[in-house]
Fold each of these.
Amino acid sequence: MRKNYLLTPGPTPLPPKVSEAMSRPIIHHRTPQFQAILKEATEGLKYVFQTKNDVFILASSGTGAMEASVINLLSPGDTALSVQGGKFGERWAELCKPYGINAEIIDVEWGKAVSPLEIEKRLKANPKIKVVFTTLCETSTGVVNDIKAIGEVVNKTEAVLVVDAISGLGAIDLKTDEWFCDVVVSGSQKGLMLPPGLGFISVSPKAFKLIEASKSPRYYFDLRKAKKAIDKTDTPFTPAITLIIALNEALAMIKEDGLEKVFARHKKMADATRVAVQALGLGLFAPTAASDVVTAAKVPQGLDGEKLVKTMRDTYGVTIAGGQGEMKGKLIRIAHMGFIEEFDIIAGISCLEKVLAQMGHKFEMGKGVRAAEEEFLK
Amino acid sequence: MRKNYLLTPGPTPLPPKVSEAMSRPIIHHRTPQFQAILKEATEGLKYVFQTKNDVFILASSGTGAMEASVINLLSPGDTALSVQGGKFGERWAELCKPYGINAEIIDVEWGKAVSPLEIEKRLKANPKIKVVFTTLCETSTGVVNDIKAIGEVVNKTEAVLVVDAISGLGAIDLKTDEWFCDVVVSGSQKGLMLPPGLGFISVSPKAFKLIEASKSPRYYFDLRKAKKAIDKTDTPFTPAITLIIALNEALAMIKEDGLEKVFARHKKMADATRVAVQALGLGLFAPTAASDVVTAAKVPQGLDGEKLVKTMRDTYGVTIAGGQGEMKGKLIRIAHMGFIEEFDIIAGISCLEKVLAQMGHKFEMGKGVRAAEEEFLK
């Protein structure tokens, strides 16, 4: 008998309605019944994306949707500007490379947000830049970027803005249309409270012009095929039926609360987590640009961060994430995204206190939980 | 109140154990717990593929796995031989085109199997052919190809044999290693009794040499990344966790019966379906190469095939498939693949009789069901 608690930045816990939806008998996808489901899913995604643009559903992980945006917008020899301040930001340039696309890089110190002015400067310096690749919330550092300000900068140019909102969509505000986000990419296993297996991508009319012009080879991720299909409420290839049925349950929950309330809940959760870890003497990794999606905190000097995460998970059933890439062993990352509530955070902080105490970290027992409780009481 | 019966060649009905598995709380994928699941899935797939080769699991539909085999094996300017005798066979050449791969085509009349001698002739005529693309069971026509004979032909050459076994794997015999199938591609929603969303691909050492040499651009579907990951019991990108958990339930069911018994069950089902539709006066579309996966029967002269399929589905809840491509409106296709048993076939034939009678087709009521019953009694 062992109870598991999931506080990772993807996958996030599944609401019972979502789980139940996946256990229903399967239906065929080329039927009016599934067309109605696909239509509802597409409309619901437009609400969450805050867009009037087309939103396509891919049977892939979020990386598949990222690749779709790279190869559909750019041709070999084209130039893109890629913002990287963490493991997932780096993926944009990695994706450009095999396709012969030049990626100019803005290297942002891990734990910091990118400066929109820097993007403006780079766009002015090189008018050949066709696409700017950014990240809403960099999962590996917990940093949130100022997409609104970046959108204003990019919108003044011919370039197209692509936002990786895999972490963040449905958890924090992202006004796709109002903030001039031409392409927004997301995945199912984060704020949308589903298992992994679906990629999402919204495309503005400005971006569609690049898609028509792109000479990069593509088939499965060809958004021209996706556009042709969605205009007939269809998909070009067999869709991940059960996940799309479950998506409608999650979207209904988000719609019922309304985006504002959903974002406020995430902020409350994040505020509580931030004060709690600080009360335990753990510094925030991104104090100036901390997202409401996932909190990255520094492992106290002398403590083994990997052991901390492993003990919480393997001994007590509480799964949080550790550091990635250059921060391996140096960070803990506690997600407060999707179907996570107040008392899940309390449970997570309590387990963190227990293992920190066992590992010899000096702090006042209960202080983290109390700080979170006081924050929640506000 | 309406009961639905699914007799389509993908998705196929889900066993209750599979449905239940998907409704379990989700777990994180970078954990020892998921590693054990991934290992079990990979081993189980090797059993069903009848191979010692690596089998990779992709988060994509079957077409994604087909694209993976094209771009990992071939470079721009390379030549492949593509067998096409239906909608899915045609996909191989469609996939080659954007990547600048020359596809020589063997055009097989729809409803017929390809002649292995023709493949031998073409390989001799053009020693530049690096890859031969074939289909185990062509879903659009119900035809099964003689992969064993094709394997013997291709194995005598430098070329690599790729088999699209999306329809057929786990339903009819395919001895990957014994029949020299270098690459076998499959999907989750057919013989493996899962929802769509997973692609599978097995790779022989001979094929791995082409993978190392391929200059086609790729990232998400890069099998070099997949190989590196699986050697550490990992995946390069976030896997479709719930579907893989469900896969293990389906694989356990197949293993419990054993492949021989599973194939015998499919044959029995196919034999009964074939005699039943013929007893109703419907000719088999592929009398000389009918697969045990799906039966394609010709719609009687003067009858509207699309209306027949729609009425069965929308009025009576029995979903079968109609004709695709050039056979639209002219065929019905009844699947007997995956979690389908004797009395599902009886139900399907009975509904077919009902609608045929309503549409004015002349036949002796009950004759199709009786023919199936007699076949099952043998």
Amino acid sequence: MTNIRHPYLLFLGDAPDQLAAKTSIGVGQWRPEWCVGQVRLPGCKADSGFPDLSVDAAADRGAKTMIVGVVNRGGVFSNAWLAPLVRALERGMDLAAGLHKRLNDVPHLAEAARRHGRKIFDVRHPTEDFPIGTGARRSGKRLLTVGTDCSIGKMYTSLALEIEMKKRGMKADFRATGQTGVLIAGSGVAIDAVVSDFVAGCVETLSPANDADHWDLIEGQGSLFHASYAGVTMGLIHGSQPDALVMCHEPKRPHMRGLPHYKLPDLQHCIDVNVAAARLTNPKAKCVAVSLNTSALSAKAAERAIKSTEDKIGLPTVDPARTGVGRVVDRLARMR
Amino acid sequence: MTNIRHPYLLFLGDAPDQLAAKTSIGVGQWRPEWCVGQVRLPGCKADSGFPDLSVDAAADRGAKTMIVGVVNRGGVFSNAWLAPLVRALERGMDLAAGLHKRLNDVPHLAEAARRHGRKIFDVRHPTEDFPIGTGARRSGKRLLTVGTDCSIGKMYTSLALEIEMKKRGMKADFRATGQTGVLIAGSGVAIDAVVSDFVAGCVETLSPANDADHWDLIEGQGSLFHASYAGVTMGLIHGSQPDALVMCHEPKRPHMRGLPHYKLPDLQHCIDVNVAAARLTNPKAKCVAVSLNTSALSAKAAERAIKSTEDKIGLPTVDPARTGVGRVVDRLARMR
């Protein structure tokens, strides 16, 4: 399993805007205690809020991995990145990237990593072998975030739950299944890049048997109602054996992401179908809450959306960014 | 896309029994018109029924591909196979294998293939890139075989339908999604070896737009109720956009294959869940028939099982090996 060492140095490169560096910035937001600073090249318009450091200064402060969570125009590898990345390897750091393009395929980097005995983690490209899923029950509790669509708040909700549960002294661990999540957690697997036969088995490996009162908070992917990715979601549901599902939804989304001809499913129907699928490997699976992404709404409209959803669905409804996830954790704390 | 040339020469190697050579034998059963003969090594206890030939004699008869559809004890590559496989390459044949072990990873074979300008198809290990599924509707009709479990007759049913439909002059093509099917069809993709994100897109590619009255008969894999593989099945269902599902089932199977702690689903429930999943990408999807595998039953018990299933489910019920699939094709012929 990928195991990325921290402290982290956040590489923002020559990102033309915040969005281009969103992965590095996200790692900084969710793991501020692991980050010593950021490296920005001339022309960079993004800012993670961490102090600007040279690679050498970051190495002196103990950085063990440089997080390459940035894309440039066209999604290709930028030659301007080469010198700082090689320098990081020379100074004893590993590299961890969530790019489509493998850093391991950049000859200069692969060669420098070999020379300095360092690792390059291309987290979008898992290289391990995983077992076939067994469906065997294992100890410990598991929560899986699911959604009406992709990119709707599943990682955000899972991470918010981890913070709130740890604050209350509960045993909980975020289990990453996407590239940004893996960089945030320092471990995990980008599940959509795993060979289809092994998806359920991979998730079983990611969330192994644990203490009876320990919660794995498994980051969901895709949606059972997304025509491109529902198979990934199905394997994730079965491998997770979730005791609890949290359904993530964005009230005003016009259509399924990337599929303009597909409408979002009805929220209650989506919950029912996800619970039914989950019950194959955990007959006690239930949906415990709804997590709304109301970022496109005014404060007032968001409040209304949360209340009307809660009235309609009959489950605690939150927006992690507005209301926090305390009410979800209240409910988890009562589950034995 | 894999495209394997025929005529075929069936390699049975030193198979200790029929089961060990079942892939080669299956290719011979379903594509007799493509097969010139078989190669058996000393000690071989399997027989495809085709004439025994030397590699050279087969080459003289025009064989273009040697089908390596055999496993020996332990599933490893047998050194005894090396000489005949190299000879086939020397005589201008390609090799096509459905083994876990890649023939391309056997240095002598890879080198001989290169030297003679021949191809080695390791059909369990697709090497192409596939697109993300779009869910966009395409012309032509599609049938997908689904099942209550794995290894329950989906390939057999699909192939039997192809033969019956072609006999009636209908436009129909078997679309292979597993290694044996790919060897039989000479094309297709072992879908369980495709990266999970691309399963639906791969199936869309496998069954492209076609004439309005053309049927793709898509080989199903796994089961939505199999805890290890349901994700593969889900991607296959969505990518297929099936107009028609045929549900495959074995009445006396004691538990899900490989999962002794999982019972088979109720047949009607399994149909309902598969149809609901299929309607995401084809709102008109319906289940048109049940295909029973009654090979474990006496003729009398099989007849009873077929009748009672038909009475209970209310759909034409067949066993392709006993009753043929004519009644299913009758129904397809009425679908416009």
Amino acid sequence: MRLGVCYYPEHWSESMWADDARRMKSLGIEQVRIGEFAWSRIEPEPGKLQWEWLDRAIDVLGAAGLQVVMSTPTATPPKWLIDQHPDILPVGADGRTRGFGSRRHYDFSSTAYFEASQRIVTLLAERYGQHAAISAWQTDNEYGCHQTVLSYSHDAVVRFRGWLQERYATIEALNTAWGTVFWSMEYTSFDQIDAPVGTVTEAHPAHRFDYHRFASSEVARYNRMQVDILRAHAPGRVMVHNFMQNFFEFDHYPVAADLDAATWDSYPLGALEEFWFAPDVKARWLRTGHPDFASFNHDLYRGMSKQPFWVMEQQPGPVNWAKWNPAPLPGMVRLWSWEAFAHGAGCVSYFRWRQCPFAQEQMHAGLNTPDNVLDIGGSEAHQVAQELASIAVPDAKVATKVALIFDYEAKWLFQIHHQGIDFEYGPLVFDYYSALRTLGFDVDVIPASAALDGYALIVVPPLPVMSGELVQRLHDSGAHVIVGPRSGSKTVELSIPANLAPGPLTAQLPMRVWRVDSMRPTTEVAVQRGAQQGVATKWRDLIEVQGATKVVASFDDGHPAIVRHQQFHYLASVFDTDFMRDYFAEVAQEAGLTVLRLADSMRISRRGGLTYVFNYGDTPAAAPAQAGARFVIGAQQVPPQGVSVFEDQQ
Amino acid sequence: MRLGVCYYPEHWSESMWADDARRMKSLGIEQVRIGEFAWSRIEPEPGKLQWEWLDRAIDVLGAAGLQVVMSTPTATPPKWLIDQHPDILPVGADGRTRGFGSRRHYDFSSTAYFEASQRIVTLLAERYGQHAAISAWQTDNEYGCHQTVLSYSHDAVVRFRGWLQERYATIEALNTAWGTVFWSMEYTSFDQIDAPVGTVTEAHPAHRFDYHRFASSEVARYNRMQVDILRAHAPGRVMVHNFMQNFFEFDHYPVAADLDAATWDSYPLGALEEFWFAPDVKARWLRTGHPDFASFNHDLYRGMSKQPFWVMEQQPGPVNWAKWNPAPLPGMVRLWSWEAFAHGAGCVSYFRWRQCPFAQEQMHAGLNTPDNVLDIGGSEAHQVAQELASIAVPDAKVATKVALIFDYEAKWLFQIHHQGIDFEYGPLVFDYYSALRTLGFDVDVIPASAALDGYALIVVPPLPVMSGELVQRLHDSGAHVIVGPRSGSKTVELSIPANLAPGPLTAQLPMRVWRVDSMRPTTEVAVQRGAQQGVATKWRDLIEVQGATKVVASFDDGHPAIVRHQQFHYLASVFDTDFMRDYFAEVAQEAGLTVLRLADSMRISRRGGLTYVFNYGDTPAAAPAQAGARFVIGAQQVPPQGVSVFEDQQ
Amino acid sequence: MRLGVCYYPEHWSESMWADDARRMKSLGIEQVRIGEFAWSRIEPEPGKLQWEWLDRAIDVLGAAGLQVVMSTPTATPPKWLIDQHPDILPVGADGRTRGFGSRRHYDFSSTAYFEASQRIVTLLAERYGQHAAISAWQTDNEYGCHQTVLSYSHDAVVRFRGWLQERYATIEALNTAWGTVFWSMEYTSFDQIDAPVGTVTEAHPAHRFDYHRFASSEVARYNRMQVDILRAHAPGRVMVHNFMQNFFEFDHYPVAADLDAATWDSYPLGALEEFWFAPDVKARWLRTGHPDFASFNHDLYRGMSKQPFWVMEQQPGPVNWAKWNPAPLPGMVRLWSWEAFAHGAGCVSYFRWRQCPFAQEQMHAGLNTPDNVLDIGGSEAHQVAQELASIAVPDAKVATKVALIFDYEAKWLFQIHHQGIDFEYGPLVFDYYSALRTLGFDVDVIPASAALDGYALIVVPPLPVMSGELVQRLHDSGAHVIVGPRSGSKTVELSIPANLAPGPLTAQLPMRVWRVDSMRPTTEVAVQRGAQQGVATKWRDLIEVQGATKVVASFDDGHPAIVRHQQFHYLASVFDTDFMRDYFAEVAQEAGLTVLRLADSMRISRRGGLTYVFNYGDTPAAAPAQAGARFVIGAQQVPPQGVSVFEDQQ
């Protein structure tokens, strides 16, 4: 567990570098990321490489005892390169080329850019691969940011055709898999297939689904190219990429599999403003962020990272890119930092060392203000650095018996084929996750392909495409399995299974979803489970139970709302939080787990024998520590925006 | 009165066809529509015609005793044809070509597509024109769906110039008619005229109005081409097209005039969600549809159909294409079917036989689920088939003394030149219609050109362009005539009449609209008629009465709200439902009609001596039958979502 | 003080002209504007000039004793010119060329159009420059209307590069000024720089800011070209342009500096509907307009006009171009006219003489209805003409000790770089202005470059770019200076000042804004000043006071809300109206001014020893006249929508 910071020597007078490095070190920072937007300074004109300033910058940092995370600068190709190869630019769904003048102006499928990237990454790796001060390499920056996963360029379409040919072998197989006979959309050659945009009405969903898969695989291909070059020249260095928060547009698992550690960029206040939260939720957590938001991402990235994950960019104060950008409450930068460590982070790195007085992000806070005065975030980082010493087993693993299965393709499927326009994957997953957290559980967020041994409770948010193999492994795990609506409703090619939903799941949970009922936001259906009342919204699977499957809860028009067969549970709808949480709690207890119901603003995490307690609320609250617990940070009473860490008596 | 179904043999294994046909027949279905999206199966490559599968499909259906409605497949030109002639594709108002990959990707003005359509329709007509099993032909599918009436292609603009030349003869005449002197928009040649889009601020309204008329006439021209070919090869077959619900973007009257029967596609729940209804209205009728929606369309299409109109596609369960797609209540498929017959339908045909498990509409219900189990809609269709026998005079005409004048051009005029952004034609017409229906009237929805003899009450929703000839015929009909605001306010070229509004109507109703007052949604003006209070919204014609015209109601600032001269009544605003309905009732009684005020959820229709009663509500309600009435279906007490049919004592 | 009217002889039969002129004169109108859209009538084909009709029109008007304001017709280039030079057309931010068919379809940077304009203006000036009936010339019409200031054409980009080269001399200077090192946006040549649109994410703010400055300077260049030609041929004539209401997209000050009088087009009801006012405000002033809206524009244009400003177009009844277009209450046309004169207008000219029955504006009222009957607006104009005689010193100057600084660049900066998406310049300025007006003050709206002598109170709404020179002049004025939030926060190149905000202002007001807190609309922060409570919204500067600066008010979390040093006052946030107004009142009193708190619907203005009183409300109210005051118009009791004018006893 250590602290880091993001730094841009090219933005500042060289005369400031040494003092910056000294002050970082004295603040307790051990690691500095640099270089990810520096191409135009490294190569201001084609072939004219200016390494010297960068040599000096790395040397200054290294000399101060800081470890350097070097980045490839491919997120911002310089103007001369774009002018040489305009086909580097991505093309939007509206058919317009997206131009130079900000960042990420490249198409993952561009052949010209693939080659230009190979070249610059090789040059960088050759020069710095074995530099003693450099401990890690970051590829590019925030793949996919600004909706750049999907591009509709000529290069992309050509590569998509090749991807399809590889997947389906023959055009007849593709026609059958997609069902192109519908609306006479049949193809006689792969060369006839375009990108699924600009159609008169909605494009074919299987076409869209495959285009998204293709585009996702292009990200992995591009990243692998960089990692391969870097590994060849930089042996022993940690390979990372900084993923984004709640960003699901490409499948992160294969990308992370090529890296040593997944890292992510955590901006709790910007996220609260920009994501799906209701206005009252946004108002409530305005200056703290939602208590489960960063946690969810920590658990997600931990689940794909070989080494302990990092937070590569931690919000240090107000940001500039949300619609509104409030200041966090004092204490929150410390709280967020500890929360990351509690969830298993190996490093928390703040973005950025000093607020930059110019260009697009000039209103983004840093640890220091532009006039080089330490800001609140800087002081809190210093406090965290001092407190880190109090943790005995800093790099312990997070261990839990509760898992939640996350699936990127499911996200795309909901997007492409929603059937109810506000029925989205991300918020559904988050609500399931949040319910588990408020019951006091640590949660492993894992892919469907992960090993399931050792879990007592596995929650499967709506997973339209379920393989028989997954169903078998869920069964073999011995865990209780709670499955969300719409699960098993689609084949891998986005058709309806021959036996209807839930498809292969019926092997363990005999039932048939004979109809789907999607509803306007104002529509609520009452639901009842024993004495407990609830409301269901948005979506209902209308179920015919089969075999020994039992109805656990029912809608007021008589249709089953929750059904169960042995350890498999199926939720037919989106229930209100209390109704869902109570059922989760009951199943968890049946699975032998201890439920700890937390106040809305309290959260706990366990790592290495310690329990970390976070108070997101406005009033002091008691940590759920047993008598005799030893507090290593804070005390039983946790102040607002406070953190306590305790060790229960052995 | 008979039942039909829409079927896609090309979507299913040929091994299922015979059983499908047998089950249709046993369900009581007599007619099957096929082929409207099958081009890529008929002609998978240019010139390679594969008739055999279609021969067999028709034979299987015919052998089962089913009548086949054959469709031309022109709504979905195959990819190879688009690749040969990219100019087939329509162009949007944004200047972008709308691509292949869904349906209706053709421009009505494309010369290449006109010729390609002639060819495929001729081939089809030659092969099947006299096939014994084929009783009717459908041209294309849902003209105009997905906003395809208006296209802005090169071909369209060139043909528009020709259309203008024919209409105006000289460019001077056009300049004068449009008033292009305003803003120096004068032309010196027809070749200078472009489509009225992409201008810096709003395009000239007369230009837009004529472009819409032109585009509408292109639909009629295209359809006529198909009908002419079919009639030449398929003598005695019924020529139909399936129009859409509340779709007003082209003038349906000339298209219907070329057909034998108008048919339309009825989706009450999708319509409720997608059309203009307020959220509370959408919530109230969520699973039944609005009680007047299908009725309005029945009456509209009856008014343009030479033979009894059909419902070509009847919603059988949830659909897939609205923002949300709830399940209808049990009973509604039966209710909607009987409602169609009560309004004069000759056939109700369900869409579709079996839910298709793939492609864009995979979530659209059928009479059977994808696993080939009879769904609720299928059971209710079967019940209707059995009940049909109880109707003595199934093909009787609907006869009523109440007419409502409908005008497609009025719709476009409101759209192009609204003066108050929420002042739309469709909802206004619907409110007038709905008021008449809740007073117990059957309503003929007719064009302004229809014969008016025999009516006692003619309601004219806002009709900006009124000819003197129409005014004279309204007078000569002897009926009471209620005219909505903004009527007679425009000349045929979208100018203000020399005598101001209501233009030619002043011959019967002396008055002068000297000003128009358009108001924000929150603005209400009180209105008073004797002791009755009401509120007016959206729009006010400020009227100066002339001659013997009397003020019947006034706004609270003293301006006339309703004026009247003899049997002509003019409404100066949009009144609340009660205020408007009470006035309609009073005029109707003066016109010698019997008013029957119905509960909000009850509706009645009369056809062939029978009264059909529909309960859209949630509680049982009494049918308005006199003592001694004979119930042929149901009973005096009509259950929720129920239907009763009775014959009054002679 | 005189009345005028806008007239289009080309829209009407020549047989009507003489009678129109006679009736204008008899109504009391002295001035007629013509010609601004008449190009296609003057030159129907290239080089075919038809002057005769225009000669006759001018002669007819002149013969009736009317003064003619002749306009250049460049706002509407004819079709043949566009066909000759398609590069005249502007290009939108979406890259699409904006076409012919409405008006203002030209790019200020188009070389072809610059030359074509020179030619037509020269021809017109040569023919009519010294015509005895012509007293003034209007250049073009409403520069910038329909978002035409910013264009993204090839010509515009080429000229932008030249503008940049002139501003920065070297590309290195530009790179440094903008901070292009951020995100590798560095340029090696001016020729690499494009327009700042179509980027993947937001374009560089300095790039956008300079593009806006460039585009604004293009308007001034274009206007100067016209004025130079006209002055050469029309000596002694008044040069004017009709600016728009609350239109801030180009800097009006340099344009006005080239003219003799600024004139503007006043549409209070259309403005209320289209601008930022909240729904309840729109409802309250539906038929009167907001009481401060026209006033603000009067004061703004007075502040840039060498001679008394005019209202070139005064709304005479309902308009056609807002989303809804209600009728003004009787009396309002008179009230608006007197309000203009009270604020210093030299002329009020109504738009238009007669409602035009065709084309885009056919629903725009005139002084006469299309059937040539005098409308309410006409009668009220007549009343004003008669009342004008009662004013003794009609052309007196408005004199006040209260100034408000207005800055066009500030508007663009907020737009480009908002940090809180609803934090806009226009509404903020308006709220400051409105607060001053309801305290009974006349207000000079002035540019930052204006002389400040003689003011007792200077209000500076948020002014991000403040020069040290301005700060010094503010200090030297001796006035109390109230400065809004975000002031001094940016350098001229849109960076953060080295000493942070408020930059140069700290010389007079020692403080440091170390953080900015931007907030969602629902967020309120309590603020306290002594016993007074208020709420702050949208934005907070978090301030560290320095030196002798005192905290006058604080937020509930302890941060300063208002700070003050000697006569400089800084508001750190957007306060509720009462809180802000009370502070203004207190400072004004300290500055020696007399505060007169007016009812919400009452406003007063003083000019030439007279006090003008306007009642925007629905009930009679008393004029704030001392006993013995002499009423030259109206009386002490001002009826709803009424005007009184009195002279206090000497």
